[in-house]
Amino acid sequence: MAQYVLETDGQVCPFPLVEAGDAILKLDLGDELTINFDCTQATDALPRWAAENGYPVTHFDRVGDAHWTITVQKA
Amino acid sequence: MLLTGLGLGVALGFTMQRGRFCVTGAFRDLWITGSTRWLTAFLIVIAVQSVGVFALDAAGVITLDPQPFAWLATILGAFIFGFAIVLAGGCATGTYYRAGEGLVGSWFALIFYALFAAISKTGALSAPVAALRGITVEGSTIHGVLGISPWVLVALLVTGVGLLARYHLRRRSPLTLASLPARTSGIRHLLFEKKWGAFTTALIIAPLAILAWPLSWATGRESGLGVTGPSSNIVNYLVRGDPQAIDWGVYLVIGILLGSFIAARGSGEFRVRLPDATTTIRSIIGGALMGVGASLAGGCTIGNGMVDTATFGLQGWVSLVFMIIGTGAATRLFITGSARVGVSPVRIPVPR
């Protein structure tokens, strides 16, 4: 059960989603991946991606103006 | 009367920002995940708008006047435009509303898009663009070619899109999506915080697109929503000082920028965001190609893809198909393919 952080600030959509999809493949079951992002559209795309893949979202919040963080667990 | 363009633009920019309405994303999803959710939202706008447009035409409020179909320029231009919007990170309206969110990459894309639209329409490239657009075929609309009433097509489109929307709504129910914690309530929550659904957003944009026709018509600009022409007009006004260039469409696009800024600011989603070198170069090349492509095709994702399609113009539908193909080519190259460069993230294991 490790935790990983993926920094995608400055990347425009769909890169946060594409990178998150790549990153989670490298993780073990139960590991948590925190994705920090500042692309507005990803506030829609990332939770949907998590739900469609069956990854529980353990944390999702704003960090500041146009800054968000979401943590999903590989399941 | 020109000010109605500004008002409509503000409403449109606001809705697109809050709804995260991105046509580039809708086309791109087809190639990355195969999802048709956003494309369905886009088709809802076309279908609802087609009902309104032909009703306005029948009522004599507007008079649709289809032009001969410039097939070669449309195919070429639409492919170039579809390719370019992936590089620029948004189509024409997408770029306007992201510019309003503070994305400096979109500012670059916007400037080069408007500049190259002007170069292609009235500047150094206007002769070859006009020559290519001179290659036409007789037909101009689908119902004209088939010799049927446009209402048959309206009925078919509305039914088809309705079924597609129903499929997505049924499929959605078992999914619970994580959402951001609420900080506000009431009307403020509804306007600036609550997540707007894709289809809700489409159902707000559609009446705005219908309303654009009579409002624009009243000022002598005889068309619906459009972005490329007005962007080119802004450049012409700025460099030549020609006040005639300022039309309803110019107010509209300035309104989109303003509306998106208001929405982003109000929801804490505005921040000046600097792109890296790769993204900057892509935004500039993408913006320039968008200007050329849209001028060749006679419209962008809005003018052709969302408005001309609603009138069942051949230019609109052929354009829509080739924009999607162009988006697919660029997606394969720059997003899922080997040319994905410089954005590899750092992964930091955090000890527990």
TrEMBL record, chain A:
Gene3D superfamilies noted in UniProt: TusA-like domain
Family that this chain belongs to: Belongs to the sulfur carrier protein TusA family.
Pfam families: TusA
Name used for this protein in its record: Sulfurtransferase TusA family protein
CDD domains: SirA_YedF_YeeD (cd00291)
PANTHER family: SULFUR CARRIER PROTEIN YEDF-RELATED (PTHR33279:SF6)
Domain UPF0033 residues, every copy: 6-30
SUPFAM superfamilies per UniProt: SirA-like
From TrEMBL, chain B:
Keywords: Cell inner membrane, Cell membrane, Membrane, Transmembrane, Transmembrane helix, Transport
Location (main, coarse): membrane
Membrane topology per record: Multi-pass membrane protein
Transmembrane domains' residue ranges: 38-63, 69-90, 102-120, 140-165, 196-215, 245-264, 284-304, 316-335
Pfam families (UniProt xref): Sulf_transp
Domain of life from the UniProt record: Bacteria
InterPro entries: Sulf_transp_TsuA/YedE (IPR007272)
A GO cellular-component term linked to this record: plasma membrane
Cell compartments where the protein resides: Cell inner membrane
PANTHER family hit by this protein: INNER MEMBRANE PROTEIN YEDE, SULPHUR TRANSPORT DOMAIN-CONTAINING PROTEIN
Family: Belongs to the TsuA/YedE (TC 9.B.102) family.
Protein name from the UniProt record: YeeE/YedE family protein
Organism in which the protein naturally occurs: Cryobacterium shii
